[in-house]
Amino acid sequence: MKVLVTGGAGFIGSHTVDALLAEGFEVEVLDNLSTGFAHNVPDGVRLIEADIAHPATTKTIADGGYDAVFHLAAQIDVRKSMEDPAFDATTNVVGSIRVLEGCRLGGTKTVVFASTGGACYGEQDLFPTPEDAPLQPISAYGAAKVAVEKYLFVYQANYGLEYRALRYANVYGPRQNPHGEAGVVAIFLNRMLQGMAPRINGDGLQTRDYVYVGDVARANVLALTRLERSGAFNIGTGKEHTVVDVFNGLNAFFNRQFTPEFGPPKPGEQRRSSISPKNFFEAAGFRPETLLFDGLQTTAEWFKQRAFS
Ligand SMILES: NC(=O)c1ccc[n+]([C@@H]2O[C@H](COP(=O)([O-])OP(=O)(O)OC[C@H]3O[C@@H](n4cnc5c(N)ncnc54)[C@H](O)[C@@H]3O)[C@@H](O)[C@H]2O)c1
Fold it and tell me: Which domain holds residue 247?
C-alpha cells in the first residue's frame, strides 16, 4: 500500500513515517521544509519538496498513486495565526483543499487529517471533552482546523473519500521544535540544557492533556488500518497534568537542580484542557499509553544527546 505523508519532515509527521515503514507501507513525504527538516526523513523515503498551498501540488498528489494520504503539513503557530490569519488560512485551509483535490483526482481512498483537540473545542466545560462537544475555536488556527474537518465531510459525501480527522491533544516527544510557540516540553528542555531555569506563565496550575508522539504515530497508523468509519476522533490520554507537573518531571531528569521562574499569565490562555480517548479506543482498540513521567524522561534523553552530540 502506497501512502503519502504531508508534513512528514516535521515532528509528528516523521514519527508517523517511521511507524508506517515499520508496518511495511511504501511511504513518500511532501513537505516544504519550513519548520521540518530533510534529515528527519529516513533514507530511501522519497521527499517531494513542495508547498501544499501551491496549485501544482494537487497534480503532484493526483499523479502519485497514493492509496492513503496522511495530511499533517500545516502552519502550527497559534499566535502567528492571529497575527496573519490570511497566511494561516492559505496554508491550513486552501493548502488542505489542494491536498483533498489531489486525493479526489488521484483516486485516493482515505485521508488521515491532523486536527486538534484543544484549539477546536476552545473553552471546555466537560472534562475530558468528548468529540460531540461544541466546536468553539477562539483562534484562527482552530477555526481553520474546524473548516478542514467540514471540507473532509464534503469530500466524503460527494466523492466517497473516507476520512479520519484526528484531534490530537498536546503532543510532545523527540524531534519537537523548541523554537516555536507551542510545545512546553521542548521549550523547557531547551532552556534546561543551556543551564537556565524554565519560565512558567502564570501559576503553572493550568492543565493540559499531554500525549507522547510515539502514541500519536501509532494512532495515525491504526486510524488507517483499524478504523472502519469516517469521522473525528480524539487522540489524547483523557488525563490532566499541570505545567508544574511537566516541570517536576523534567527537573527529576536534571537531578532537581532548577527552580522555576514564574511570569505573568498568557492572555486568553485556557485554564483546563483534556480530551476523551474513549471513542478511538472503542473503534480502534488503542489508547495512548505512555505515562507522562516516562515520556518526559525519553524526551529529555533525546534532547540531551542531540544537544551534546
Ligand atoms: N504538536 C502538537 O501538539 C499538535 C497538536 C494538535 C495538532 N497538531 C497538528 O499536527 C500536525 C503536525 O504538527 P507538528 O507538531 O509535527 O509540527 P511541525 O511544524 O513539526 O510539522 C509541520 C510540517 O509541515 C511542513 N509544512 C508547513 N507548511 C507547509 C506547506 N505550506 N507545505 C508543505 N509543508 C508544510 C513543515 O515543514 C513541517 O515539516 C499539524 O497539522 C498540526 O497542526 C499538532
Answer: 177-209+239-273+290-307
